[in-house]
Amino acid sequence: MTPRTDFAAWLQGTNDMTSRFVGAAGIAGLVNVAGGLPDPSLFPSERLADIAAGAIRGTPEVALGYGPTPGLPELRAEIAARFRARGAAVTAENVMITASGSQALDLIGKVLIEPGRVIGCDFPTYAGALDAFRPRAPRYRHLDLADHAGLPAALLRTDLAYLVPNFSNPTGKLVDLETRRALVAAAEETGTWLIEDDPYGALYYDGPALPGLLELSCDGGDGPYRGPVIHLGSLSKQLVPGLRVGWVIAAPEVIAQLSSAKQATDLCSNTLAQMMTLAALREGLVEEVHPRAIALYRERRSALAAAMARHISAWFDWEVPVGGMFIWARAKDRRLDVEQVVEAGLAEGVLVGPGSAFDPMGLAGPALRLNFTANDAEGLDRAMARLARAMQAVSPAAAPAGLAAG
Ligand SMILES: Cc1ncc(COP(=O)(O)O)c(C=O)c1O
Fold first, then answer.
1. pLDDT digit string (tens) for 127-144?
2. Which terminus of the chain has a smaller tally of CB atoms within 10 A, N or C?
3. In testing the pocket of ligand 1, which one of 166, 197, 238, 270 has its CB within 8 Å of the most ligand atoms?
4. Same domain, 178 and 120
5. Do 262 and 177 have their domain in common?
6. Where residue 32 sits, what CATH number does that domain have?
7. One domain for residues 304 and 179
8. Boundaries of each Aminotransferase class I/classII large domain copy (predicted)?
9. CA 102–ligand 1 middle distance (angstroms)
């Protein structure tokens, strides 16, 4: 008999963006501006190789053994110390190590979301979070972040809020300081969990970093922190994504519940990767990579904006973000079919991200997410020239005269 195929119902709702992207990545000559990948030239591979060898040879019983579910104590303490240095009064008790930000989102779904609970988001929002929460069958409500006075009432109508205040994926939007303060005050007043997903917080290209929601919610005591913010961090965009090391910083009772859920998921995070992370942090590798990443990505951000102005301004509007990895291109024609643009782009040799995956309620109108970190200036220009040809095929009325080949 053939095996049954009555898979869980929630799978019907998953977006196929990631699998489509993985499939398309094999097309020869394709320029991929759809992903959100760091540039591998920034990876400190030799240093990490030495660290890994040292960890395995030096303490194989730790590096190759099981570890505690909430993470290696020294790594939890190191993360807490780093956050204390930037003004967040937290202790190791507030920290849990995860298999990067993605696992933290999955565990939050398991611990805080009962079917039908309401999640408040600033749409468009990270499609990976929507995917992680999907098995829990939540409902969603858009949070109007500009309405500061209305935020407490808005949070009362939600069970938890999920936000990416630093350079949102997909829009690149930076939530300003006044709005951050209003959000934290509203969460504290209403007792609503406020998830601050922050993989891009190190990637500020212009101007100083704003304090995070966690810092704004800490009262400066000796800790542990007991407030409503649940901060998610990750090394993926500031060191390497392959180690799959991230962390949750939250009140100890949240950490305890997340730890129970993690036990059933993977018992513990990869101990070798945690040891490598600890050594990399202690040796200052993140600080070494940081200025190079900022210089490279700042230049590429400007290169993509310039290429967009050269090639696709007839069809799209955008703001140039001050950090992160993406430019959000909003279609001037609200009737544009973005799926058609993705297909036409593929035919021209460019892969772009459809905005619809981040905006299931269609609040923002048709848009594309364009990544600038994974290609050099030449590749970005080629990508936008190809996108212009795709747009000419999909929406010829708006096309400027004499599109260049490339
Ligand atoms: C907003 C946001 N959250 C979380 C993640 C998950 O990243 P990772 O699992 O590599 O930490 C990403 C990855 O792109 C992201 O953009």
1. 999 999 999 999 999 999
2. N
3. 197
4. yes
5. yes
6. 3.90.1150.10
7. no
8. 60-387
9. 6
